[in-house]
Write a structure and sequence with these properties.
Distance between the termini of chain A: 20 Å
CATH topology of the largest domain in chain A: HIT family, subunit A
Family (chains A, B): Belongs to the HIT family.
Strand order of the largest sheet of chain A: 9-10-11-13-12-14
Largest interface: A-B, 107 and 107 residues
CATH class of the largest domain in chain A: Alpha Beta
Subcellular location (chains A, B): Cytoplasm; Nucleus
Number of strands of chain A: 15
Oligomer: homodimer
Order of helices and strands of chain A: HEEEEHEEEHEHHEEEHEEEHHEH
Strand content of chain A: 25-35%
InterPro entries (chains A, B): DcpS/DCS2, HIT-like_sf, Scavenger_mRNA_decap_enz_N
Organism (chains A, B): Pogonophryne albipinna
Helix content of chain A: 25-40%
Number of domains of chain A: 2
Binding site for substrate (chains A, B): 164, 174, 194, 196, 257-268
Chain lengths: 326, 326
């Protein structure tokens, strides 16, 4: 989760970089120029590796750059199909193993074909360092009673602002991003791309359906009376995605989060096969299952024990610890 | 999924390589020597990229090597903490963007610090090529009736062999890998590491509990009578993992697959936070939820519509297509 958040941040930075670069191309100035520069990293003193991923080939490092706190993010770049021919002809191979039809090598590529994306945050604040620090998660067991006595009071006290959601619903923000709209006040919703999706390819399609009806905080508030709403989102959401992106329902994963990241009912639509953050069984609930469960038991989500992960720095986790539940 | 399967294969190869290397160190011979070799890849002609992952920085390529079919697998290596100092001092930086406290660069590292793991399969058979080919998945909707009329007859006709499971249960194989055993014929089980886990660190802990009782194919066969079995696996599995690996239940994701990859009841124990293949909501079912569902409705898994992904080359998918269900 820490990696994903950090990854998202890098991507945002790169978007900024692109914009800066294109502004520069149109205007001039120093920002965005790609130049070979003095190697500022040769002065970098590592304090601590904040997190890393062997799978994603990235690392987040806290250290000092000229006596200032800095965070350095390194991430190997994807292997590009258009450079393969050059990579094969221009590299050095070191044989590791040969056995029958299988052989393995360490390939040393020309540096310019095998770059490492590098981001420097300097001076970095305590907040930056904490953000990139790997966060352990714990699985919390929440009975219906726990929800009433621990979770609900915490949510209410925090009064997490969902003003940004209301801005979307009132078309004060992001109106140009809306993919589909059903204006019915009871079963209506808006469908729009999640921020994580750049909309450049459907491989990582990610849309969010936000209910127009206010006051449904999460899965825990759902009863049989919400079935028409849920069925409407499921049906019309799938139709809109088929029409706009030519993806049939059999290529979609449609689910809710518990705990959600904001307490206004919303549904996630992602492409099947795309390992979206938060699509794991410990946090996601298939909308189709939610509908079936409510059909057979109107009190299913009021009474059931639900399980979900919380990060160490989540305030709700402290409440569960205080209650002796962890 | 294709990536994961392929990744698994590479890892197996590397295990083989390691073994070959250590055999060699003890014995001599050609296998396992690490030598700079003629660049056989300079002759490689790409036919097709079979699959790739921008997230994992790998690529699987089908092509020709000296007129023979070959598959080349390239994967960038993880960034190693112990080479950071050398990486920072010895690399060239190209500035991409500078904006306030943020700056981004393309880092060109010395080739030997930034290798690409390369695997060659040559000559490659049609089976190899198919194995590494990215496979689309479809989400299948299976009602209780569909299970009886489509899935169950397919499973029975295929008669997937679970002899290897019986070999484990009878201690004819893998006996030295058993982490915990409850010999009770009704509620007993064996707990052992999954092949995907190298047991070197608990970060990617992955164990499987296999029931001693035979004839329970999957989730679909479970009724209230299996509650003691499921509760026993849940409880004793968690205790054994705490004792052996010092991981408490709050750090574990305990689940079943539907469809399972083999039809003898087994339960997955993975570390929370490790994105294990198959832990997504579309395939995994938390054991805690399964227990609750059976407690409140003994026929839950007999009657419920279940959703699961199937790869294009899965024979069961053809059956659903023939039945007009996709």
């Amino acid at each position: 989760m820490a990696d994903s958040a950090a990854k998202h941040e890098i991507d945002e930075l790169y978007q900024k970089a692109k914009r800066a670069k294109s502004d520069n191309e149109n205007g001039g100035g120093e920002v965005g120029k790609e130049i070979e520069c003095g190697n500022i990293l040769s002065e970098f003193k590592t304090t601590k590796v904040l997190s890393d991923s062997a799978r994603e080939k990235n690392i987040f490092i806290h250290g000092k750059l000229a006596d200032q706190d800095a965070v350095i993010i390194l991430e190997k770049t994807p292997i590009r199909e258009d450079t393969l021919a050059e990579l094969f002809t221009g590299s050095t191979l070191k044989l590791e193993m040969k056995n029958d039809i299988y052989s393995t090598y360490r390939l040393q590529a020309p540096s310019q074909l095998n770059e490492i994306k590098t981001t420097v945050v300097c001076p970095a604040t305590e907040k930056h360092i904490k953000k990139y620090q790997r966060q352990e998660s714990f699985l919390v067991e929440e009975t219906g009673a726990d929800y009433q006595s621990i979770t609900l009071p915490y949510i209410q006290k925090q009064s997490f602002s969902v003003q940004w959601v209301y801005n979307i619903l009132e078309k004060k923000a992001e109106a140009d991003r809306i993919v589909f709209e059903d204006p019915d006040p009871t079963v209506g919703f808006l469908l729009l791309p999640d921020f994580k999706w750049d909309q450049k390819q459907v491989d990582d399609l990610y849309l969010i359906a936000i209910t127009l009806q206010r006051g449904i905080r999460s899965l825990r508030d759902l009863t049989q009376e919400h079935l028409p709403l849920l069925q409407n989102i499921f049906q019309k959401g799938k139709e809109a995605i088929l029409q706009r992106y030519q993806l049939p329902a059999s290529k979609l994963r449609v689910y809710l989060h518990y705990q959600p990241s904001y307490y206004h009912l919303h549904v996630h639509f992602t492409k099947l096969g795309y390992e979206a953050p938060g699509c794991g069984v410990e946090r996601a609930h298939l909308l189709a299952d939610v509908i079936q469960n409510l059909q057979s038991d109107p009190e299913y989500y009021k009474t059931r024990t639900l399980y979900f992960p919380l990060r160490v720095d989540d305030g709700l986790l402290s409440k569960y610890k205080e209650a002796g539940r962890l």
